Amino acid sequence: MKILLINPPNCGRSIPEERFGITSIKQIFRGEPLALEVLAGNLHGHEVAILDLKVEPDALAERLATLRPDLVGITAVTCEANTACHIAAQAKADCGATVVVGGIHASNDPDFFHRDGIDFVVVGLGKGSFRELVDALGRGEKQPDIPGVARVRPGATLRYTPRVFDPRDLVEEMPPRYDLVAANRGHYTLLGLPMGFVASAFGCPFDCNFCCIAGQAGGRYLACSIAAVIRDIELLGAVPFVRLVDANTFGNPEHARALCRAIVAAGIKKDFFGDVRSDTVVRHPALMREWKAAGLRTVVIGFEEISDLGLAQLNKANSVAVNREALAILRDIGISVVGDYIVSPDYDHADFDNLLRYMQDNPVALPIFTVLTPLPGTALHRQMQGRIVNFDLDYYTLSNAVVPTRLPEEEFYRRYAELFHLTHPHAKI
């Protein structure tokens, strides 16, 4: 079977740019389509290609014409969901391919893709279930019953058997097909640094109400085997900077410690970039020191809010005091911090002023500011559903307010852009 896996182009839209000419909120990295590389790794026996439209935005028609795939698989985050549907329609029209959509939006809001032009929706991790689907289609099955895979039948209710994810779904014996995007490797950078992606875990053991990660593994946290992670790091070859793309690299501290020691034992000399909660840093400073010695250069921490009340409202299960302590520990160790902060549409001028003062008092190497967005399928979406006024998923980029802002809209976005202007002039990680 000929299989084409497609990563959508950059397609999110910007209210501040479109309405007010504010262009200072820019993307700072372009990462490889690891989800598709992982899927491709378990499709041995088939002719598989990956089309990264973020690198080749005009290549869809030509690739469909030359490859003539039997099956097209499309991944999408929420702001790419509409574009995924357009890609699906073109694939169906141009070559009559069977079309499968997966990714984080499909995992949290599968009903969105219950429409003409799409044949199946993969819900949650797809490395195992997608292969099972390919095998069933190869046997001629028209309506296979595979846990985690929904058969699209427009006019009927989307029904499927939820998949209970476990380590077998990681199919660890089959490594990612990094070779399928080798020609694009020079495009995958962070602040100009060559960067490769490796997964050491999937899912997250926490339950923040704004986060869409729970849909990935059904709320479970699945750590990859140490041997598989080491293998994947080594498969990246000379790439000097490795982004561990897990939602929480240190969600299992003992696993993280074992991985760190295995990196050292393997003689791997790379810079690493991972995600960690601030309370993990505070509870396990020795672990962070070990990782620093093994090459950990930067961590992402979702600080999110600057008050305990705000953290509680997000179900973050953390405190501002812990956030400050974690920053002090990491500063002492010499690990730089990319800090995520959430700006509420309810902010007034005093709230923006407070956030700027907080950033001055608690500086990080690179602050990232997102606008509180009720992503479909999350608890926050259920809580805020009655307030949503913008239902166009193209704007669900985490930099647009999809509920009314307290400040006049232009004032809100100018203050929001000011955060980047005042805190990003010499960003380094």
Question: How are the secondary structure elements laid out?
Answer:
Elements: E1 2-7, H1 15-20, E2 29-30, H2 34-41, E3 47-52, H3 60-67, E4 71-75, H4 81-95, E5 98-102, H5 104-108, E6 120-122, H6 127-138, E7 149-151, E8 189-190, E9 193-198, E10 201-203, H7 214-217, E11 221-223, H8 226-235, E12 241-244, H9 253-265, E13 271-275, H10 278-283, H11 285-294, E14 296-304, H12 308-313, H13 320-333, E15 336-343, H14 349-361, E16 366-371, H15 379-384, H16 409-423
Parallel strand pairs: 1-3, 1-4, 4-5, 5-6, 9-12, 12-13, 13-14, 14-15, 15-16
Antiparallel strand pairs: 2-8, 6-7, 8-9, 10-11
Helix pairs in contact: 2-6, 3-4, 8-9, 9-11, 14-16
What is the CATH topology descriptor of the largest domain? TIM Barrel
Number of strands: 16
Kindly report the name of the CATH homologous superfamily of the largest domain: Aldolase class I
Q: How many separate domains make up the residues?
A: 2
Strands of the biggest beta sheet: in what spatial order? 2-8-9-12-13-14-15-16
Count of DSSP-assigned helices: 16
How large, in whole angstroms, is the Cα Rg? Answer: 21 Å
What gap, in angstroms, lies between the N and C termini? 43 Å
Largest sheet: 8 strands, mixed
Mean pLDDT: 95
Label the overall shape.
Answer: globular
What is the CATH class name of the largest domain? Alpha Beta
| Poorly predicted spans | none
Strand content range: 15-25%
Structural class: alpha/beta
Helix content: 25-40%
